[in-house]
Design brief:
mainly alpha; two-stranded parallel sheet
């Protein structure tokens, strides 16, 4: 199993006008402790136009990083219908997505 590809599979599930967090994606992978790894995968995303890594933010609604620059992340979020103010997602709880379809691959690895 390729963990980066599975991470991208999860992130592509985030619907329009929704965002998720590094931790939520890590939980969907099967281990909350992989939140930093999720951030690294987002940073290494080969194509920001086809993989919506801009939709991944911090658990408190702060924007976090973006390989193409924070202004580009804000532009992409706004184009997706997400309001940003003072470096945070407005109404974060209302736009937070956590309903991933997943097989929790890290749980499978750790069972072996």
């Amino acid at each position: 199993m390729n963990l980066s590809k599975y991470t991208y599979y999860l992130v592509r599930q985030i619907p329009p006008r929704k965002v998720s967090t590094y931790g939520a994606v890590a939980k969907a992978l099967g281990n909350i402790h992989y939140a930093r790894a999720v951030g690294k995968y987002m940073n290494k995303n080969p194509d920001a136009d086809t993989m919506p890594c801009f939709k991944i933010v911090c658990s408190d609604g702060r924007l976090g990083g973006f390989g193409l620059g924070i202004e580009d992340k804000i532009r992409r979020l706004k184009e997706d219908g997400i309001e940003v103010k003072d470096g945070r997602i407005v109404d974060f709880k209302d736009v937070f997505f956590n309903d991933f379809k997943t097989e929790y691959p890290l749980r499978q690895i750790h069972k072996k």
